[in-house]
Amino acid sequence: MDKFEQMKAFTQVVTAGGFAAAARTMGMSRSAVNKLVIALENDLGVQLLHRSTRVVTPSDTGLAFYERCVEILASLEEAERSVTQLHAEPRGILRVNAPMSFGTIHLAPALADFLLQYPDLQVQLTLNDRFVDPLEEGFDITLRIAEPQPIGSLIVQPLAPAPRVLCAAPSYLENYGTPTHPNELRSHSCLHYGQIATEYQWKFTGQDGEYPITVHGVLCSNNGEVLKDAAIRGLGITLLPLFIVESAIAQQQLQVLLSDYKAPELSIDVMYPVNRHLSTKIRLFVEFLKHRFG
After folding, report:
1. Given its phi and psi angles, is residue 68 left (phi above 0), alpha (psi -120 to 50 degrees) or beta?
2. Among 72, 80, 1, residue whose Cα is nearest residue 42
3. Which of 28, 49, 102, 148 has the fewest CB atoms within 10 Å distance of its CB?
4. How far apart are CA 282 and CA 286, in angstroms?
5. pTM for this one?
6. Of all helices (H) and strands (E), which one includes residue 249?
7. Is 80 exceeded by the pLDDT of residue 267?
């Protein structure tokens, strides 16, 4: 006899408070439900239910077993739903958060291709450069560019590395000189993320060691495009992900500096809440992102 059918019958009897009510819910005869529960008790060698003419209640052992059965049956239902969803078309709204620069340069055209594949899906894209709490703010998918780090309440999967380069406009270097060592950056105008009132450090590693440098400049911002444009105008030196400045470097608007020294590499990560990892729309979008940017 199917053990899961026995467990379903038992939990339904406890939930409904009797065999007749459980039988109606399950669409079975009272005797069939009773037969399943008796078979379960015989298999286990314990009495799970106290029966009387008017009421059925679980024994202490039955109550403990009931709680475990509820968990097991819920897990089975979730597993069955996940297998079914593997072949289902994604529907509904997918709420996505991403950094501004990456979102406009790379994610926007990728999203258009994704939506053409799945016309029944809607995407709500929010772009900003602050660190959001995906759980608190209700995002299904969050893309983040930072130094790799685990986050307990989220599944974090790396998509691609995001190397950073130090660069400045030829006009700035002509006026203020070209630094040949990280220590020289202390005397330059450095355009950085963060706030004016807060000290900000750039860290570099070369063959001669590691150099944490506290930098200052005429401009700081929480957006890489702003810093890139300011650097192109000759306002200072900036340290940015390559995907933001590669076009300006190719057009010789910016020049790479201190190529023998490397800043810690960032990672482009996709994050989503643990309890949503079986969602069809999330699974398909994560697979799409990995294929697109991996």
Report:
1. alpha
2. 1
3. 148
4. 6
5. 0.64
6. helix 242-250
7. yes
